[in-house]
Amino acid sequence: MPGPSSHKITADHLNRRACLYIRQSSLHQVQTHKESQHRQYDLRRRAIALGWPEDRIDVIDEDQGKSGATSTQRMGFQDLRARVGAGEVGMVLSLEVSRLCRDNAEWHQLLRIAAVAKTLILDEHGIYDVGDINDWMLLGLKGQLSEYELRGIRARMVGGQRSKALRGELKLHLPIGLAYIEADRVVLDPDQSITEAIALVFTTFRRLGSAMQTTQWFRRQAIRLPSRPHTGNSEVHWAVPNYSQIQRILHNPRYAGCYAYGRTGMRTRPDGSVQRTSLPIDQWLVCIRDAHKGYIDWEEYLHNQETMRTNAASYLGGAERTPPPRKGVALLQSRIICGLCGQRMRVNYNYTNRKEVKWYYLCKENIVRRGTRTCQSMRGDVLDAAVGRFVVAAVNRENLTLSLMVREQLRSDFEAADRQRINHIESLRYQVDLARRRYMEVDPSNRLVSATLEAEWEARLKAHGEAVREQERYKKAQHSTPDAALDQRILTLASDFGTVWEAAHTTNKDRKRLLGLLIEDITLTRRGYQVNVGLRLRGGRTHELPPVALPLPRATVIRRDASKQALAELEELLEAGYDDSQAAEELNLRGHRDSLGGRFNAKRIRTIRVRHKMPGGIERQREKMRAQGYKTAKELAAELAIDVSTVGWRAREGRGIDVHQIPASKRTFAMYRISPKIRTTATASS
């Protein structure tokens, strides 16, 4: 091992600067381990003793509190490495190798740069010349030992952490709604407003079956959920939730009383980067059920995870996928199964115009998976009507039970929402009282402090007043109809459920949700122009509807045609040389209409001509001109062995070619022939 001798230092080293690099791994070490800082800064005297002037010694300490495992966030180390490569540094000083770098790859990169730039490295044991093979080997071993030490420390820490977690004794951060008490025992939060708010999330999801619809319900009712930051003070913040907050609550197993550890893992992306991802339940490192009291049980937690998994739009689960109801007009969306292959059928919308939409149920399994033809497809409106009639008849048979369920659901929804608004008002009232007491206790002569506290008091009062007005507004809307009148209305609608089903204010999403309460799935099997509909009801019973007849495609003759009088007049117009557009306009002026009462146009006239084998006006005139010896430009050019453009030029210049123009609605057709005078002269000379 080299001693403290300075024979390796040359005049070239002294002409360059000496850089003292100082680092500690964490902010806790920076604040508490003052002796380590003192020892590192004391190396400055070592550089002065070796011959460097004090003004040529640079101290790099901007990486304090940063780990040496990587140089990504250590700007000081990156600047030092760049200066060494530029040849500005004669010697790098550090208390030990681990201060410079704990990553062996980056450490050897620094050694290679220092060897090229002939920069010395000093630690508390001596001076090293990287160009010397012995010093290079010794520094390399020190770098490896430093990395080994870091990995060993991490392995011991992680091992101890996992060992403690396996026993369920590792104290983890708890989500809002749970709290630690004596002996680190987990209980529900003692704040009743918080526990009721979290419980309402699970109750609403249990009823709606969708995280997005749960979020929408909370936002419609303006119900706030609590949250607490991981760091800083433990003040609870209340706000209307978003979708990610609802999902975090539903996915967290602590709410089911489960102690879970190691729920995430690392996944390597195709580009080589590493991403943290969630692991399946069977791959969690620790999963201790019933470890503490929760808001739901473990079976309901698993059911919620399965529900959200099948709700995901990206989930390709085949026949088991049942996403929540959406706004589309297709009533049987997500509940139809192909009777031929057993896979889920899809909905295909056809927007013929802005006012009318048609939809079809089709099975694309063979196309997507096997590249063959579609299993079957069918019109959706007639099937929706048949299933809708079954739902209305089934509900009307249970009208009393339905009315009680609807009334109870309305009351429970309002009571749950109103209870959360009252809890929020109580919390704001406490904050108002606290701000008032703080303002009253301050010295009035201290105007700066009193003005701030007065503004805070006024802000709390304003927030409390807005919450009270909001609660009154929702309560007034709820009680706008008396209870007796509301009960009578519910009974009336329940006795005639068809009125509710067909009402304009009943949305497609509501109909699909009502359908889902009765029917699990629907199997469709097409036989020609009839569809066999099999229903699997809630509870496992099955029911077969009478075969549903699909509408037959109308023949073209039935769709568009003309009367005998219109056909006779059309024949006369075509004989007179009218084209399709001119004939359609003339027939419309004469008061004729097609078989469906529509006006004629060029396209419909052309269809009628083809169907009745009528040559068009242009074709008739062309035949007449051909009888007189006229031909098209292309035909005449081939006969005379000249270019097509020459035919037109000679016709315009009057050089032996006659032209006849056939007018049409949008363009003019030209036909050509050799002038009779030229043809007679040529015959006489021959």
Compute the number of strand runs: 23
Helix content: 40-55%
Report the major sheet: 5 strands, mixed
Strand order of the largest sheet: 2-1-3-4-5
Principal-axis shape equals extended
Oligomeric composition of the shown chains = single chain
State Rg: 43 Å
Structural class: alpha+beta
What number of domains?
5
Would you identify the regions where 5 or more consecutive residues have pLDDT less than 50?
314-319
The helix tally amounts to 27
Q: What's the pLDDT, averaged over the residues?
A: 80
* Percentage of residues in strands: 5-15%
Distance between the termini: 122 Å
Features:
alpha+beta, Rossmann fold, 27 helices, extended, 5 domains, five-stranded mixed sheet, 50% helix
Summed up, what is this model?
The chain is 50% helix and 15% strand.
Could you explain the architecture of this structure?
- The chain is of the alpha+beta class and 686 residues long.
- It folds into 5 domains: 11-163, Rossmann fold; 172-315, Putative Large Serine Recombinase, Chain B, Domain 2 (Hect, E3 ligase catalytic domain fold, Alpha-Beta Complex); 322-550, no CATH class; 556-621; 628-685, Arc Repressor Mutant, subunit A (Orthogonal Bundle).
- Helix content is 50%, strand content 15%.
- The strands form 8 sheets. A 5-stranded mixed beta sheet has the order 2-1-3-4-5, with helices on both faces.
- The longest helix is centred in the middle third of the chain and has 43 residues, at 399-441.
- 23% of the residues are buried.
